[in-house]
Amino acid sequence: MTAALRHPDGPEKYASGYPVHQDGSCNGLQHYAALGRDRSGAESVNLTDRERPQDVYADVVELVEHQRKADAAQGLAVAKILEGFILRKVIKQSVMTTVYGVTQYGAKLQIQRQLRDMESFPVDYLGPAATYLAKLTLSSIGKIFTSSTEIQNWFDEVCLLLHSVYYFLSIIIHIFEFDIAALGLISRQSLLPIPKPFQLKLILNWTTYGNNCDHYAFYDEAGDDDDDDDDSNLRSKLNEQNSPMFLSSNGEIDFH
């Protein structure tokens, strides 16, 4: 400070190498925008030079409000009810947590809490309005952060593949009763427990259980072989915690 104040051309001309701590603009989205070289996303989270600081939440609000107006003009009741309620604070948490695996249902609960705190919002429309806004919010993020969304989808696919490998390794261990660490493939054991007895069928059906990062998968002997929702259910479970693994260090298994 002393050196800056004593600078002959004024303190604003003093060149300092002192680090300045600043808060990021939605750090998770900053990482994704940088990874994907996502120009529009980078601008929204202040990774590019602009005359004024940008606000990603305001950008999302603008897109959501634009779509709400279009839907209201088409006669959609919930869109009309939400007039005047598309605010930054309503969608902020959902935008922040999208990179950490928030689902549409989770976003709905977040938005519903915000709407409930508004005394003027009609209680009867809390559920439908929150569901509608959650869908619009997440889709709007995808429009701003195009490459970032593609990266998240790629992580989902990788996690699905890892989960499949993880599952079959667990079956092999269960059958042959050997220590997987002896293979030299995995440095930390955290294998999925397989319920006993497990069944193998020609027609395979996924059933998933568990919370957070603990996913239990096995073939369901009584499952209906024409259930088309199993794969999407597994993808949804994995996405809740595992797709943002590099951001939140939630990796369950370490490969050399």
List the helices and strands and how they pair.
Elements: H1 2-5, H2 27-35, H3 39-44, H4 56-73, H5 77-81, H6 88-97, H7 104-116, H8 126-144, H9 146-176, E1 206-209, E2 216-219, H10 230-241, H11 245-248
Antiparallel strand pairs: 1-2
Helix pairs in contact: 2-9, 4-6, 4-8, 6-7, 7-8, 9-10
Q: How would you describe the overall organization of this protein?
A:
The chain has 256 residues and is mainly alpha-helical. It folds into three domains: 2-44, no CATH class; 56-144; 147-248, no CATH class. The chain contains eleven helices and two strands; from the N terminus they run H-H-H-H-H-H-H-H-H-E-E-H-H. The protein has helices at residues 2-5, 27-35, 39-44, 56-73, 77-81, 88-97, 104-116, 126-144, 146-176, 230-241, 245-248, and strands at residues 206-209, 216-219. Strands 1-2 form a two-stranded antiparallel ribbon. 23% of the residues are buried. One of its GO terms (biological process) is mitochondrial transcription. Residues 239-256 have a biased composition (Polar residues). This is DNA-directed RNA polymerase.
Portion in helices: 40-55%
Main sheet overview:
2 strands, antiparallel
Question: What low-confidence regions span 5 or more consecutive residues with pLDDT below 50?
Answer: 185-231, 241-246, 248-256
Domains, number: 3
Spatial strand order of the main sheet: 1-2
Report the mean per-residue pLDDT as an integer.
75
**How many runs of DSSP E, i.e. beta strands?**
2
Report how far the terminal alpha carbons are from each other: 48 Å
In oligomeric terms, what are we looking at? single chain
Q: Beta-strand level of the residues, as a percent range?
A: under 5%
Tally of alpha and pi helices: 11
Topology as a string of helices (H) and strands (E)? HHHHHHHHHEEHH
Radius of gyration: 24 Å
How would you describe the shape? flat
Helix/strand structural class: mainly alpha
Domain DNA-directed RNA polymerase C-terminal: 2-163
GO molecular function, one term: DNA-directed RNA polymerase activity
Keywords: DNA-directed RNA polymerase, Nucleotidyltransferase, Transcription, Transferase
Protein name: DNA-directed RNA polymerase
